[in-house]
Amino acid sequence: MSFQDDDSGRRAGNAYTASDITVLEGLEPVRKRPAMYIGGTGAAGYHHLLWEILDNSIDEAIAGYTKRIDVTIHKGAKSVTVEDDGRGIPVDEMPQYGKSALEVILTKLHAGGKFGHKNYAYSGGLHGVGSSVVNALSSQLVVQVKRDGVRREQTYSKGKPLTKLTDVGPCRGHGTRIFFEPDTEIFGDKLSFNVAEVRDRLESKSFLHKGLVITLRDETVSPASEETFVHEGGISEFLDKIIAAKGRHRVPADASNFYVARQTEPNAEPSWAIETSLAWTEATDEAVKSYANGIPTTDGGTHEAGLKAAVLKAVRNFIDVHELAPKGVTLTPEDIREGMTAVLSVYVADPQFQGQTKARLNNPEVAALVDNAVRPALEKWLNDNKNTAESILARIVLAARAREASRAAAQQVTRKSAVARRLNLPGKLADCSSNHAEECELFLVEGDSAGGTAKQGRDRHTQAILPLRGKVLNAEQASGNRVAGNKEYQDIATALGCGLGKDCDLSKLRYGKVCILTDADSDGHHIATLLLTFFYRHMKPMIDSGRVHICQPPLYRIDIGSSTYWALDDAERDRILKAKGGRGKPSINRFKGLGEMHADELRDTTLDKRKRVTLKVKIDDELETDRVINDLMGKDPAPRFRFIMERAGEAGDLDL
């Protein structure tokens, strides 16, 4: 991303004619706008290519044709091979195209065998774009198909065939093998496949599909290593792993998992299948890992809503039947689900995913299906395990009482009314004049000097500035009392007015968005990380609701002739110089800190909503996020040391 003046739209007359219209053919749209198909060209999009190919093999397993999937990450981690023993992609000719079905699938959008339910009752690939998108975004893709005793092969580059589909010899068995290497023109040359991330995804797939054998061969190490995943215990075994990995303690300690599986009769229409396992723990949050047709739905959806509704009804019915309602406290849905850890997997014939990345399931009917399948089974489980159920209820009541006690104790940081909104606010806060929280922004700025510049460059109506002094306290290592007593964090909590911890109530926010504004160097990144740790541990609803953003101030100002360009880092500086350097001798200014920037420079690049670029903080994987923060910011130095040693070779990329 860059901050560049563009006056191309100011040509004389602003001529706009039919000659300006571009029609993208074949797979050109994918290469032109890859984010539309894979969510972005960062690490997540890079790995999404592998997930698309893997999910095609998983769909064969769901249909009952694949028993084994082999994934190989090749040396350098820049390429990967996925092989299965399924039916093999059809290779016979499609007369209307004069090409094999294989070539049509790999070179045309919306071509595939999953639009009806003849070959796949359930599948994650619905739009016929997965394989063709991977092909379009790969510098090389080689596909081998084993069918009818013959092995056939074809090679592609950037979505176009380099060879014809040729016979390469006889074979035994059947299946598909795809090798691909993501194109550096799209993703750059620094990205590579993360072996640990791939391993976790493969293991989760083996939990979701009982008996499916998945192997991972890692050729990035010498000698190459190989690991096999097969889990006959399914998602109940998966739940055990999640609870152990998060270090959670069951309630009660010897409790078994609740498990239920329901599905329609064969050939029923519409068909569906539901499987879930859950348990209560002593943790203070709920954690639901959900899947739809084998695809991880990291943003939840209607199936999660159905599960949460079922748990709420089942627990309340158990309380009513046994007359166990507590006195002096009201149980909220959050109290009942606090500490609940669950794995949920659903299969539906026509899933409606939100976006090609399929992070959320939107089928409205699925909520009722899950509710009706889980609620009676959970009620029966609670009644059959009354001692366990009563321990869970005691834990729920404790959560409710702690919530109410903490609410009373946190009144000192609640939001003031519009009339008294400036009373008791931090003295160094430069507040804005608007009383409408959703349009207001609070900038947490590194240092008084930068704070002064930001105050001069801000929009006084909607932007407030709170300067922070140096590096703030590490909230991961400090006790709750130390965090609550820390002056910087007190100022943040008081300014926001929404409370801390379990009492964080976003309806009381004085600012709809928090923007972390630090220097574009390693110290600035460290301060931003400390602030993110604080928000994650003590004001997590702010992150969950997308209200925490990281500003992207430029590191360089580049003047070439009468034009000014802004670069976030060295790589962007070099791209600008390469693209624009021929227009004159460049003048390059590197900012040592925000305090060196003029108010108008900071406004134009970082504060102005019309021109700036910010990064919204989002949690894709709760388990991984919790582990990383604990490893890198916690008291135990061993995980940090291991992290540093494993990445010592990347030290040259750091701004030291």
What is the domain total for the residues? 4
Which bin fits the share of residues in helices? 25-40%
CATH class of the largest domain: Alpha Beta
Strand content: 15-25%
Number of helices: 21
Overall strand count: 25
CATH third-tier fold name of the largest domain: Heat Shock Protein 90
Question: Which term fits the overall shape?
Answer: globular
Largest β sheet strand count, sense and barrel closure = 9 strands, mixed
User: How large, in whole angstroms, is the Cα Rg?
Assistant: 28 Å
Low-confidence stretches: 1-13, 113-121, 123-128, 411-423, 651-656
What's the CATH architecture of the largest domain?
2-Layer Sandwich
How far apart, in Å, are the first and last alpha carbons? 22 Å
Mean pLDDT, nearest integer? 85
Q: Can you say what the CATH homologous superfamily of the largest domain is?
A: Histidine kinase-like ATPase, C-terminal domain
Based on secondary structure, the structural category is: alpha+beta
